């Protein structure tokens, strides 16, 4: 039983090392300026977007992946594929051409 307690203590220490338990850190870059946000993976993406817009004092922007795709704002941060140490871009929405 002692070894189980030792493992639990080690796991708790790891959680504390990575910040508050259950939270992840996401870096958002706007105009070349990076800012880090601690978020709960089950929180919705829209709340992260709102925090980033407020922090950068801007409006009408979206979160995007470095490859240019938009991060979907419906659903949770975890469901969108955002994990600890993810880097996202805060930028204007990309309008893509359609077929005529």
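^ Assign residues to that structure.
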């Amino acid at each position: 039983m002692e070894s189980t307690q030792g493992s639990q203590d080690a796991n708790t220490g790891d959680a504390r090392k990575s910040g508050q338990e259950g939270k992840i850190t996401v870096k958002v870059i706007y105009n070349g300026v990076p800012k880090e946000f601690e978020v709960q993976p089950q929180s919705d993406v829209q709340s992260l977007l709102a925090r980033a817009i407020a922090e950068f004092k801007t409006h009408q922007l979206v979160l995007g992946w470095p490859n240019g795709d938009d991060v979907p704002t419906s659903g949770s941060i975890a469901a969108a594929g955002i994990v600890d140490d993810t880097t996202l871009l805060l930028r204007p929405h990309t309008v893509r051409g359609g077929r005529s």
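DSSP finds two helices and four strands in the chain.
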